[in-house]
Amino acid sequence: MSESNRFHLGTIGALTLSVVSSVSIVICNKALMSSLHFIFATTLTSWHLLVTFCSLHVALSLKFFEHKPIDLQTVIGFGILNGISIGLLNLSLGFNSVGFYQMTKLAIIPCTVLLETLFLSKIFSRSIKLSLGVLLLGVGIATVTDLQLNMLGSCLSFLAVVTTCVAQIMTNTIQKKHKVSSTQLLYQSCLYQAITLLISGPFMDRLLTKQNVYSFEYTPKVIGFIVLSCLISISVNFSTFLVIGKTSPVTYQVLGHLKTCLVLTFGYSLLRDPFSWRNVFGIMVALVGMLLYSYYCIQENQSKAEEASAQNQRKEAESDPLLRVENGTTKSNELPLSKGTAWEVDKDLHA
């Protein structure tokens, strides 16, 4: 199997793992928070990250992956930034209406495109921008209901969008710059994310819920769902880094909106959540946007691969004169002379 085919299979596997694990953890957390009334989202996320770090530490000791050190300042800053972005997203949900929070999540894609264009000189084609616009329109129709604004909530949403975009762009750039795998980066950074949220989580949850996470009654059923949520989170955290490393932050956000559509569909079909024709229409428009985005990405990747292949062939032709001969590009005065050439035959005849 060629390297290109292995890369495509790896990308498809990463996307599938991300979708399955994310939808699974949403279902698990919905049962935990709605049915069992454990509503401490930030503290739960810190436990997710701590369990992820412990599992990766065990995997490292069993030599499932190789530890590759990265500049400590970069890793600590990256880990803390990720923790802050998670906390700000939770605060944004707590201080805004659900509709405005959904708008905040939608704003991550155009903000990411803007930041990558300005600071990384990345070029997004008109077709890609159009497909992203269709996607955002569809998700907006399906999920955004009320838009109640307030100053504090708006500021928190703005900070959440910016920190999330920067953290996801850093996930991609650090992996490529330091040539580390998603597993290596996750292992080195998730402990700092966990520490950030372990310290701030209980205070944030108390601010949002008016309850103390450590005073909650932990029944065996609650503990069971928390353990299940933490185990699923290992796959969620791993697949997040994997997808961003193999694709891009924008593609990861597109995938996130696909998950939203799947969760909405699951909630309606199995849990009989309230659903309307507006939700159906919005999901259909969003799916069209996702298909267009996938189609244009595949086309652009194929064009880039063909251009790279053509450039390699030109370089080889320039460096190897035999290739120029085969291609008929060598001039007559560049051909090497050997015995039996015309001037030698002529010389023998007139001797």
Automatic annotation (TrEMBL):
Residue stretches making up the Sugar phosphate transporter domain: 21-294
Membrane topology classification: Multi-pass membrane protein
Domain of life: Eukaryota
CC per GO annotation: membrane
Subcellular localization(s) per the UniProt record: Membrane
Region annotated Disordered, chain positions: 308-339
InterPro entries given in the database record: EmrE-like, Sugar_P_trans_dom, TPT_transporter
Keyword annotations: Membrane, Transmembrane, Transmembrane helix
Ranges that cross the membrane: 12-32, 38-60, 72-93, 127-145, 151-173, 185-203, 223-244, 277-296
Short name of any one Pfam family annotated for the protein: TPT
Ranges of biased composition (kind: Basic and acidic residues): 308-323
Entry-linked PANTHER family: SOLUTE CARRIER FAMILY 35
Protein name, UniProt field: Nodulin MtN21 /EamA-like transporter family protein
